[in-house]
Amino acid sequence: QVRLVESGGGLVQTGGSLRLSCAVSRRTFNGNAMGWFRRAPGKEREFVAAISWSGDSTFHADSVKGRFTISKDNAKSTVYLQMNNLKPEDTAVYSCAARDGESWRGLFEYWGQGTQVTVSS
Known about the structure:
Radius of gyration: 13 Å
Number of helices: 1
Helix content: under 10%
Largest sheet: 7 strands, mixed
């Protein structure tokens, strides 16, 4: 069964850091590109970051570029989102997602439940 479980969310002050983790079931992680999305209250879901299966290709949205970094540890079947210099506008529910294949371009088929990140001003 496909399972993606996020952790690492919480409350942090402006300028602080958090690292989100997404533990992925073995069958999903092998040969899958991964991504992080977020949804703020009253807003549409935003594509935040993504990484190819090999790790050779990454994507970061302009809104987080230079502050957030996606990475993965294949041995641990885990993908991370390091978030630095957090701002109140980063407050959202963050979800990880997976898609079949090497590339992160395209629709994501598997989703976690999400973890709340709240940045206080």
